[in-house]
Specification:
It is built from 5 helices and 2 strands. It is mainly alpha-helical.
């Protein structure tokens, strides 16, 4: 297991302070595992074909057990760069998935409204600023806020890269 570079502690503490402890744990887990080699493209392709054809070449009990791949340890400046990129990519992916969900909900609302509205009131181009609330007393999120988050991701990426550079230049090393 890799030793966590002390320069990452402020990033991890910040994530915990803003209730993104799940992301802090993912960073720690990723550093523990290291950079794991990806599957061989030919193996992935054969698995895709097998799934599409709904067949299995060998029963799982007949397959030879293979130990999990050992990851390449991430150390020093690589940890800082990896963590900054991971946070940026992970949050970008989460916001993109949220945007896709709102887009689908918007399409459902638009289709339902168009179906029930009289012909004179039908407009296919009309969008809605949806509000999503998952619990009765829980927080809400508007689709316009997701748009704001998407535009903030680039600023976050730049800030994380700047932070990583400053840690590598002036931060202490392990």
């Amino acid at each position: 297991m890799a030793t966590i570079d002390p320069r990452l502690i402020p990033l991890i503490e910040t994530l915990i302070a803003v209730d993104a402890d799940w992301l802090a744990l993912e960073i720690l887990d990723g550093l523990r595992l290291g950079i794991v080699p990806e599957e061989i493209p030919e193996d992935l392709l054969s698995t895709q074909f097998a799934v599409r054809e709904a067949k299995r070449q060998m029963r799982r009990s007949e397959e030879r057990a293979v130990p999990p791949a050992i990851g390449k340890t991430i150390v020093g400046d690589e940890q800082v760069d990896w963590a900054a990129k991971y946070v940026s990519d992970r949050l970008s992916d989460a916001v993109s998935m949220l945007q896709a969900s709102f887009d689908q909900l918007n399409q459902i609302v638009r289709t339902n409204r168009e179906f029930h509205a009289p012909p004179s009131e039908r407009t296919l181009e009309q969008g809605f600023d949806l509000t999503l609330q998952t619990e009765a007393e829980g927080p809400t999120m508007r689709s316009s806020e997701v748009d704001d988050a998407i535009s903030a991701i680039q600023r976050l990426r730049e800030a994380l890269l700047s932070w990583a550079d400053s840690m590598k230049e002036g931060g202490h090393r392990t």
